[in-house]
């Protein structure tokens, strides 16, 4: 590891400590606090992540330009063409809104990469705007005291290498252990060649830009248990302090499908709120008791990617969501998508600033 990388890791560690002290109050300690658990990360590290409280999810990429959240991956790379890309604006908005961390969709379902990956031509290097958005995000975060994170989607409609994706006709969700019952169709899956590709790409993301506070892997069910375990270990080796989200999907997080999402450091609460009784951090998974914090993810409007006319939800709804997340013991990762110019629209900016005031951040 270079001295430059070492200093960046020290910055990340100090940043988490500072954020933990300054962020909104985390969930109160419980009677079972003395337990340490069998999870990879220490309780202290996980509490520091919980203390961040509030982050920005940034869905931006090919889907912004082809208008399809679940892109078929067939559009030319040149279709990605922001004409006023301003990643610094994204991070400034997040900081001014009281958000402590930022997670960028480095690669979504379209398979188009927001960094110049060496393992596919379907990247910004062959697009109309060639900016390495991942590099720009990390640099902007470092200057503004916001912690960076990357999202990577395992459902890839462009770089298939023989995989079957949920876009294919006749797919069926489920059977994530990889053994369908007699007569049942096989769930979407990834081939070993695709899995090599995903390992190489995540290695790029986790070695080229310095410390990454959160690593988001979406649609982990298509990877299979064996490769997920390998991938989790690879991520942890490359970025020991990162918090890994294997997205466990839509729902309130009360139950957890280990065949679909384990191993993970977090439990996802997607387009929902945790139960009124609060997020259950301690879980019995894979034969051991572990502590898994929760993270709610939801768009500021209706769509994950920018869509013309998709306005932010009413102020009262947004403040209730943020307050409920914190009261029930989860972070909120609020998706605020940039438009086709490459900027967060003013309506979203103003909604975020009002949310900060209304929530007393």
Radius of gyration over all CA atoms, rounded? 19 Å
By DSSP, the count of extended strands is 10
Write down the overall geometry: globular
Low-confidence stretches: 1-14, 17-29
Please, how many helices?
Answer: 10
Could you characterize the architecture of this molecule?
The two termini are 38 Å apart. β3, α6 and β4 (214-218) form a beta-alpha-beta unit. This protein is of the alpha/beta class and 361 residues long. It has 10 helices and 10 strands. The protein has an 8-stranded parallel β-sheet. Mean pLDDT is 92; it is low at 1-14 and 17-29. Helices cover 33% and strands 14% of the residues.
Quickly list its features:
alpha/beta, disordered N terminus, two-stranded antiparallel ribbon, eight-stranded parallel sheet, single chain, 361 residues, globular
Secondary structure: elements and pairs:
Layout: H1 3-22, H2 43-52, E1 54-58, H3 62-66, H4 87-96, E2 101-107, H5 133-144, E3 147-153, H6 192-207, E4 214-218, H7 225-238, E5 243-246, H8 258-261, E6 267-270, E7 282-285, E8 288-291, E9 294-299, H9 315-327, E10 330-335, H10 346-359
Parallel strand pairs: 1-2, 1-10, 2-3, 3-4, 4-5, 6-9, 9-10
Antiparallel strand pairs: 7-8
Helix pairs in contact: 1-2, 4-5, 6-7, 9-10
How would you briefly describe this protein structure?
This protein is 33% helix and 14% strand. With 361 residues, it is α/β, with parallel strands linked by helices. The protein has an eight-stranded parallel β-sheet with strand order 5-4-3-2-1-10-9-6. The protein has a two-stranded antiparallel sheet with strand order 7-8.
């Amino acid at each position: 590891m270079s001295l430059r990388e070492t200093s960046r890791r020290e910055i990340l560690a100090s940043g988490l400590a500072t954020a933990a002290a300054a962020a909104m109050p985390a969930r109160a300690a419980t009677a079972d606090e003395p337990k340490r658990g069998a999870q990879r990360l220490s309780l202290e590290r996980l509490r520091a992540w919980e203390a961040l409280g509030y982050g920005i999810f940034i869905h931006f990429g090919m889907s912004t330009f082809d208008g399809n959240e679940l892109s078929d991956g067939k559009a030319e790379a040149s279709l990605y063409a922001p004409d006023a890309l301003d990643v610094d604006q994204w991070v400034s908005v997040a900081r001014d809104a009281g958000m402590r961390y930022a997670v960028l969709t480095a690669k979504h379902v379209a398979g188009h990469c927001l960094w110049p990956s060496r393992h596919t031509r379907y990247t910004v290097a062959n697009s109309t705007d060639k900016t390495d958005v991942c590099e720009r995000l990390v640099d902007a975060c470092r200057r503004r005291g916001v912690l960076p994170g990357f999202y990577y989607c395992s459902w890839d409609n462009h770089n298939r290498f023989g995989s079957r994706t949920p876009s294919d006709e006749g797919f069926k969700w489920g059977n994530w252990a990889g053994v369908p019952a007699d007569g049942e169709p096989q769930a979407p899956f990834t081939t070993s060649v695709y899995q090599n590709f995903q390992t190489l790409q995540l290695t790029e993301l986790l070695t080229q830009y310095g410390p990454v506070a959160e690593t988001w892997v979406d649609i982990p069910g298509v990877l299979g248990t064996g490769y997920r375990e390998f991938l989790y270990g690879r991520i942890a080796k490359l970025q020991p302090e990162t918090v890994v989200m294997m997205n466990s999907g839509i729902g309130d997080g009360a139950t957890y499908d280990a065949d679909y999402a384990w191993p993970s450091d977090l439990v996802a609460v997607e387009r929902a709120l945790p139960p009124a009784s609060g997020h259950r951090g301690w879980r019995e998974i894979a034969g051991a008791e572990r502590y898994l914090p929760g993270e709610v993810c939801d768009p500021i409007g209706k769509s994950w990617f920018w869509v013309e006319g998709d306005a932010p939800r009413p102020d009262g709804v947004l403040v209730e969501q943020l307050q409920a997340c914190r009261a029930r013991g989860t972070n909120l990762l609020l998706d605020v998508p940039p438009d086709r110019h490459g900027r967060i629209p003013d309506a979203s900016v103003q909604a975020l600033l009002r949310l900060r005031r209304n929530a007393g951040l």
